[in-house]
Structure formats: C-alpha cells, structure tokens
C-alpha cells in the first residue's frame, strides 16, 4: 500500500501520520511525506524550504520511532498551491491513499474552505481524513 501524507507541521498532520503508520505496518507499504511550500513570497523561499525539510525530518523520525522502516519512507517538497500539488503528487507516485488531518474549522474559514476540503473535491484517489479530535495511539 502506497500512502501520501501531506504535512504542514501541525499536530493534525502529525496525528494523521500516526494513523497512516498504523495502517501501513499492517501491509507491504511505502509512505510519501509531502510538504507544499506556498509559491507566494518568493523572497522567503529558501527559509521556507529549510523549514519544510525540518518538518519532514521530524515526521520521518516519529514514524521510525513507531516502527516504520526508513527505507520505505520518502520525503518530497514542492512549490505551489497545496490542494493542487497534493493531488498532483498523489498521481505522480500512483498512491493508493492520501491520509491527512483537518483542523475542523468553522465560520469564515469554513466558507473559504480548507486544504483538506479542496483535496476531497478534486482528488481521484481515496482520501482518509483524520478528524481533529481523534487521538491516535502513540
């Protein structure tokens, strides 16, 4: 099973990664960790990429501590709009599932839409959304 785990460095993304790891270790797996660097503010692009590398390294370390094999984990950083890039990378790597968290926003954020909601609207790949209140076993 090949799973894409998009992350923004939040606790919601980390929790989704834990869920993905638990599922993955029950199968022959390959995990792709993804961080999308917003293509706005190019003057800070180098700083953002360094931050993305740190986020992905930390997430990879967490998955390793949970028992995942480092050789079965890839990390990818791309520039662009998060929802579109998540779907593009899912197609590029031919993943079986996208596993991502959501913050459970309401009010104006709900009207505008979240990254997770947009991915759900445009993805051809199965998307497993981990709700904000779900507590994954450590």
Specify Rg, calculated over alpha carbons: 14 Å
Q: What percent of the residues sit in helical stretches (DSSP H or I)?
A: 40-55%
Strand content: 15-25%
Q: Which strand order spans the largest sheet, edge to edge or round the barrel?
A: 3-2-1-4-5
Overall geometric form: globular
Q: What would your notes on this structure say?
A:
The chain has one domain: HUPs (Rossmann fold). Helices cover about 45% and strands about 20% of the residues. It has a 5-stranded parallel β-sheet, sandwiched between helices. The two termini are about 20 Å apart. The protein is α/β, with parallel strands linked by helices and about 140 residues long. The model is unreliable at about 105-110 (pLDDT under 50). The relative contact order is 0.23. Helix 1 links the parallel strand 1 (about 1-5) and strand 2 (about 30-35). Helix 1 crosses helix 2 and helix 3 (about 80-90) packs across helix 5 (about 115-120).
How would you describe this structure in keywords?
single chain; 138 residues; alpha/beta; Rossmann fold; five-stranded parallel β-sheet; 5 helices; 5 strands
Topology:
Elements: E1 2-6, H1 11-24, E2 30-37, H2 45-66, E3 73-79, H3 82-92, E4 97-101, H4 108-112, H5 115-122, E5 126-130
Helix pairs in contact: 1-2, 3-5
């Amino acid at each position: 099973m090949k799973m894409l785990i998009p992350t923004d460095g939040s606790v919601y993304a980390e929790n989704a990664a834990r869920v993905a790891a638990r599922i993955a270790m029950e199968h022959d797996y390959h995990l792709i960790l993804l961080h999308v660097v917003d293509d706005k503010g190019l003057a800070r692009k180098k700083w953002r990429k360094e931050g993305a590398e740190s986020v992905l390294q930390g997430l990879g370390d967490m998955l390793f501590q949970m028992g995942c094999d480092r050789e079965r984990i890839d990390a990818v950083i791309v520039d662009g709009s998060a929802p579109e890039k998540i779907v593009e990378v899912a197609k590029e790597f031919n993943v079986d599932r996208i596993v991502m968290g959501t913050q459970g926003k309401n009010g104006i954020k709900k009207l505008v839409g979240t990254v997770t909601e947009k991915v759900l609207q445009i993805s051809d790949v199965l998307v497993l959304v981990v709700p904000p209140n779900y507590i994954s076993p450590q």
